[in-house]
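Can anyone check this?
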Amino acid sequence: MKRALVSVSDKSNIVEFCESLVINGYEIISTGGTYKKLVENGVKAIEIDEVTEFPECFEGRVKTLNPFIHGGILHRRDKQSHLDQAKELGVEAIDLVCVNLYPFKETIEKTDDFDDIIENIDIGGPAMVRSAAKNFNDVLIVTNTQDYAPVIDAIENGKNSLEFRRSLMIKAYEHTAAYDGMIANYMNERFNEGFGEKQFVIGSKVMATRYGENPHQKGALYEFDKHFTNNFKTLKGEASFNNLNDLSGAVKIASAFGGENAVCISKHGNPCGFAIKETLLESYIEALKCDPVSAFGGVVAVNGTVDKELALKMNEIFLEVVIAGRITLEAQEVFSKKKRIKLFEQGSDKLVLANDTKDFKHIDGGFVYQDADKVGETEVKNAKLVSKNKATEQELKDMEIAYKVASLTKSNCVVYVKNSAMVAVGMGMTSRVDASQCALKKAKDMGLDVTGAALASEAFFPFRDSIDAAAAAGVKSVIEPGGSIRDEEIIEAANEFGMSLYFSEVRHFLH
């Protein structure tokens, strides 16, 4: 008779799994709460101390760390010396190990009690998983409830191949590596401000992309904390690597204004249109005016529901991606006429952000890691008025929009907003003057009047030339971080032109 060792924290479907194992000739060895659940549900099982010949001790801290357990898992069935020694020591083989680990993540989410947290660090579990994974030639290791059915199918239908066991082995080491990485990250967050000697980036695969940035590169999407599993639904098409990067930027901008009717159009990760109006339809129409040329083949993020009327308007040009809180069936029918468009929704009334607390970027040979950037809730509201003139209520709203969009646009950048719609943007330039000139040139080409607009920069203006250019274009209000050695010149220029000038005193570079 084969033997299975079952000790799980997540007890979903464990009774049914063990019932199937018993039917297939397995004797079940179990521990603590798992043993109790199995017996209460009529599954015959042996308690762990009958095998270890030693009682659970130290309040359950030690129960499976025993040669009868690890010897049973680890001895090689293809080496006669191992078989002889197992017989000599009275060690019986364990042929399947089903273990998932103490709920460390759930514990740190519900309590800050360090003693409780420590007690929810699994010791015996990872040891058993690693033992079984190491001996995958002879042992099935099951760490995921989703694998119960495939394992039973493999046992019953002659599919328990080396390749199958190897696939479970890889999942097992992923499981323990992610678990230990999570613990290490938590401890560093608690005691080292999140920046320890090691940093572990842990993601779960959602899907492969068709390819990476280019066809010769492989790519895939990984998620933190099931963000995409819970908040990303494909309605039409297939998300590419580049689509995912672009829509991430658009969603961040469109969702940066709470429940307002915001629409962001982006291209290659940067905004080329943005507006907040009374309706989403109006917002889209105004956003498109900023740069309809760049919007062609772009990404549209809608902070709300796309209905038929909005879909009909969007369908007038070629858009590659639309992502929204929801897209109605009638709207999907409208979009169905366009073969190449891709539709995604988040299943909520508004767009949803994961609000990651950390951010990182790959550089050659490693990665740089930092606290995630975000415009504070009162950052614009509490910005310091440094000019003589004060902004009107609408100008303050335009400054808020321009400032938040600038914080999510590649540096060097400037953003011009008028009547709650972006009318010009210059981004990714090597100088702020170039960004200003490029933005104003594009606005002129689009026939947009910048007069009365608010201007935002994500970093300070080093010289007054950008203010001079803004004044010539008719800009009435400016918000920037301040902090230049020439701030007084900038203030003097603003006063000279009768502008309102605000310093947020926070820089928001995005490189």
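Reply from J.R.: I decoded it. The longest strand covers residues 299-306.
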